[in-house]
Amino acid sequence: MKQSIKIAKTLIEALPYIKKFNSKTIVVKFGGSIGSKDFSSFSKDIVLMKLVGINPVVVHGGGPEISNELKSKKIKSNFINGMRITCNKTMKIVEKVLGGKVNKKIVKEISINGGMPIGLTGRDNNLIIAKKIKLSNKDQDLGRVGEITKINKNYINKLIKTNYIPIIAPIGYDQNGLSYNINADYAASKVASAINAERLIILTNVSGIKDKKNKLISSLRKKRVNYLIDQGVIEKGMVPKVKCLIDALTDGVKKTHIIDGTVKNAIILEMFTDSGIGTEILLWGKVA
Predict the structure, then answer these.
(1) Edge-to-edge strands, sheet with 179-181
(2) Mean pLDDT over all residues of the chain?
(3) Residue 54, C-beta contacts closer than 8 angstroms, at least 6 positions apart
(4) Rounded distance between C-alpha atoms, residue 193 and residue 62, angstroms
(5) Closest Cα partner for 103 from 170, 185, 175?
(6) What are phi and psi of 223, to 5 degrees?
(7) Of 9, 32, 36, 244, which is least packed with CB atoms within 10 Å of its CB?
(8) Which of 18, 34, 55, 41 is nearest to 260 (CA)?
């Protein structure tokens, strides 16, 4: 009986959030750093969101899987400013792993749990148009790494309206059909902005943004984020992730989150409970 009462209280706590986000679109970035052995908890969260009237859109990464595949093929992984140098051979692996392996695993798991997922890359209906990134240092070349020039928002919205759950691999294509490797955080930010998403959630393998004392910050504004970056509190790989969240806020997304995707039912805990589990970032307004 006690367990049943606890479950009932949890459902009641979730009710106002379900009402608040009904018919809203939430973009979720599933990071490769979380691991790909078990998508079950993540997939159930996504299906539950859809069943209670929320429209989830998933953008996924796959960096560790790409690195493992390259290693097995004896192709060395090199990076510039955290971005993988992508030669033609590497690009073939990127397409195989992201568009084939990881995307299909997520699609399969969501389907098993009762959702209607549809796996996509930038090639589908010109979903992601991209061009080659050119670095300021002309002596450095990332190869086939791209920046997004256009998102086919009408196609994504059409899929949402027909009850599909878009699962997007961050592979873009230029006007000539040449493919490009695109950072998944950046792609998720651009997708969220293009479709005027209510929220953007980045799932990674850390609990969120922490202060100087290594204590989790549950809520903060854009101005505070920039200060923490300047002070070196937010550092290393967290900086580009947070900047993608800030860009999404600047471009119209209402609120952004960074949470630990290794926690079971992380999305539900962040979206449907009073306390949440990660860090939310607001452009302005009252912080928690």
Answers:
(1) 146-151, 128-132, 171-173, 179-181
(2) 89
(3) 18, 21, 22, 23, 24, 25, 26
(4) 22
(5) 170
(6) -60, -40
(7) 9
(8) 34
